[in-house]
Amino acid sequence: MSTSEQPPAEVRAPTSLSPSRASDFMQCPLLYRFRVIDRLPEKPSEAATRGTLVHAVLERLFDAPAVERTAPRAKALVPGQWDRLLGSKPELGGLFAEDPGGERLARWLTEAEALVERWFTLEDPTRLEPVEREMFVETELESGLRLRGVIDRVDVAPTGEVRIVDYKTGKAPRPEYSEGALFQMKFYALVIWRLKRVVPRRLQLVYLGSGDVLTYDPVEADLLRVERKLLALWEAIRLATESGDWRPRPTKLCGWCDHQAVCPEFGGTPPVYPLPVVPARAAAPEAPGEGG
C-alpha cells in the first residue's frame, strides 16, 4: 500500500491503551498488532471463558442482600450465568462441541463452582458493599494519551479510602514476578487518581486458583512512574504504527499463541499491513557554518 492510500474505514490506528493491550505490546509487539490493528480472530479457551464466568457470578452475587451472599447461593448462580454467557456469545458453545455426553462441560462447571467457593475463604461478601462492580473507567492524560479499562470491584471505606479489587482465576505468581502482576492494578490506580484526584489506599489481587491475596498500597510516586512508563510505551506503539515495523518477541508464551501460522518466528507471513506507512523523517540539513 502506498503512503497516499487510505486504509479501509474499519481499520484505524490505535487511539487508547488498556492494561491488557499494554501487556500485549510489552510481551510481543507483533501480538499487539495482530490483536489491535489486524484484529485477527482468536479461539476462545476453556480457562479464559471460565474466568469470565466466575467474574460474572461474583458480580451478580452482590445483587443479593448481604445476608444472602453465601457460597451455596453463589455456586447456584453458575449454570444460569453460563447460559447467559452463551446467549451473548454463542461461539463459546464450540468449546464443548466434541463433548456429546456433557462430561467435559459438567467437569468444567464444577471447576468454576470450586473457584467461586474458594473466594469465600478469602473475602466475606456479607461485610462488603462495593461502590462499583465491573466499572468502566477512561481518562485522558495531559499528553493526550487515553487510558481505559474495566475494574472488577471498587470499595470505598466510610473515611473515603478507595480499594481496587481484581479477581484472578489462576494461581498467584512467584514473588519475583509480583511486579508484573501489579502493573494492571497500578494502571487502574493511575486512572482513578487522574479522574478523582484520589490515590487508592489499596490495590488487591484475589487469586482464586491458589487461594492467595496480593495487596499493595500505592503512593503518588508509584503512579507517576507508571504514567512515565505508559507514555514511553505509547510512543513506541506510535512509532511502530507509523513505520509498520512490529517485531515479534519470542518467549515461552508463544506456545499458547493463536497466531503462529502468520508469525515469522514460526515460518508464517503476517497479513498485508492495513495502515499507511509513514516514511522515516530525513535528517535535517546542517545549517551553513555547522559541521566540521
Write the layout of secondary structure elements.
Blueprint: H1 19-27, H2 29-37, H3 46-61, H4 71-88, H5 103-119, E1 132-140, E2 146-156, E3 162-168, H6 178-196, E4 202-207, E5 212-216, H7 220-243
Parallel strand pairs: 3-4
Antiparallel strand pairs: 1-2, 2-3, 4-5
Helix pairs in contact: 1-2, 3-4, 3-5, 4-5, 6-7
What does this molecule look like?
- This protein has helices at 19-27, 29-37, 46-61, 71-88, 103-119, 178-196, 220-243; strands spanning 132-140, 146-156, 162-168, 202-207, 212-216.
- Helices cover 38% and strands 13% of the residues.
- It is globular.
- The longest helix is centred in the C-terminal third of the chain and has 24 residues, at 220-243.
- Strands 1-2-3-4-5 form a 5-stranded mixed β-sheet.
- With 292 residues, the protein is an alpha+beta fold.
- The model is unreliable at 1-9 and 282-292 (pLDDT under 50).
- Helix 1 crosses helix 2, helix 3 (46-61) crosses helix 5 (103-119) and helix 6 packs across helix 7 (220-243).
